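#struct-help
A.M.: can someone run this one for me? Single chain, 140 residues.
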Amino acid sequence: MSVKTFCFSIAAAVSLMALSPAAQAAVPEKLKKDFAQAIYDGSPDLVHKRNPQPLLRAVIVLNVKLDENNQWKADVIRGNEQQPEMQARAIETVKKARMLDLSDTDRSEMQRGGLIEAWLFDSDGTFQVKTLAKAQQSGR
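D.P.: on it. Structure tokens below:
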């Protein structure tokens, strides 16, 4: 993995950590986990169950909201110019995610601010999302 890709992965992780507390203050943890599971259920062939690699292929950070038609919509917060297919894959998994049974409060929050999630892609193109990801492997 190139130094540029490694630096990008670190920058994306820092961005996610910096944005998450403020951006997701109103999003309950259960809602974040339910959404992450809906991503996994919608794209089971793209999700891996192992610990993510020490150096990831790509980290894609999306802000996911409900649009005016109550469909999932993803806005890229942090993409990867060297891996555009991974960004497209992350967005596609959002479109494939099943709709959650949301309370009026949760639905309103998902339409207004949504939630922030990161897709952690291994070199083979499979992923885990940060909310449900296993610990990353050490670089030894």
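A.M.: thanks! Residues 3-129 form one domain.
D.P.: also worth noting: The beta strands are 58-66, 72-78, 115-121, 127-129.
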